[in-house]
Amino acid sequence: MAPRRRLLRGNSVLVSVYDRKVGYLVFRFDVKRLFSDDDDDESTSRSRPWRRRQPREVLPLPPCHVACFRRPLSFPMDLAASPSGDKIVAATTDGHIMVYDAKRSQYTYDHDLRCWKAWTILLTISSRHRDDMSMLVTTQLLDFSEPDLHFEAFRLTSGGRLHPLPVPPRMLFGDDDDEVDVTSYFVASGRVWLSVRRLCDGVKGTYSLNMAAPTKLGWCREGSWVLPLEGRAVYAPDLGLLFGFKRRQ
């Protein structure tokens, strides 16, 4: 059993844990419990402020999970949550979208992607509305022999809607026969960012797409470099920092 990713909701996070015998279990953790000054009296807190809000070394697993997404071993998933945390979305490698409504304790399986996607990626773009959310659905391994199938958007409004996204300009990724590995990805200010590496020759680049106006011209080349991170990264706008795991050499 290993933690997969976290989904933010106010003062709590939803953490998905993969259990080989069951599937993906989602637990809710109270973020405040990660930092506690309960052991410091008032005088100590004033005289030694650095002693306050020290992170706990261990946070116990909650006794009950919020949601469970069962899956065959051959079909990995990626998960995301609505801004309120009331709806959890799972995209599977075999081409399905599942939505769990926490308020109704109900699962919906009515949404099918246009094709299967190896190692599915879900990137969430939050809206001003509490329960609205747009997501980019793509894959970590892009095969441009069929580029039209790789990029889709999913919205939680009106029961959930899927629609295709524009294909990146051909000049960004090379020839039809080239396979491209998405090495890192994140969302910032309504744009999704993808760092990619072409497998045939190692050519690298980072590109972004404006999800508010997702047209072909909305794709932008940010540079001929890749992020020094691996997989999903999280941008903290208040700090101007990007957090993630260091890329393995």
From TrEMBL:
It comes from the Eukaryota. Pfam families: DUF1668 (PF07893). This is DUF1618 domain-containing protein. It comes from Sorghum bicolor.
